Amino acid sequence: MALVGMAGLIAGSTHAPLTAILMVFEMTRDYGLILPLMLTSVLAYLVARRLYPESIYTEWLVRRGVVLSHGADAALLAHIRVAECLNREPVTVREDAGLEAVLALMQQSCQTEFPVVSADGRPCPRPCGAWGWRTSTTSPSWTRPPESGCSGS
Description:
Layout: H1 2-14, H2 17-28, H3 34-51, H4 56-63, H5 72-78, H6 82-85, E1 93-94, H7 99-108, E2 116-117, H8 130-136
Parallel strand pairs: 1-2
């Protein structure tokens, strides 16, 4: 019965009853504990959720000012159409652009991602030299992306 109590403690503090049930069952492999585990874990979860809505995992986020409410994202997304989020004229990066030009674009734009285009303006079918952009910020001698053959595709 101590293991069932442990499952109740885990389920209540983490707000994850299924995790508690599976954890104790994996440790014991005792099918006789399944029903008491389920009842205790679900009851502990419901009581803990009613008394305190935050789990031990979300509590430290709340203390730091990050508030996570269930369903808020879904409610927000239900009122936004895809057309409202679409950037019809994104800032693009030419495949032959140097690092300085790309960094300047990144500083001037509020975009977080930049489509790579060939010299004639067509989108590249695959990332062109994407491995180099991350490592380039640590290597001042790296100024141009490697030849990747995007324009030939």
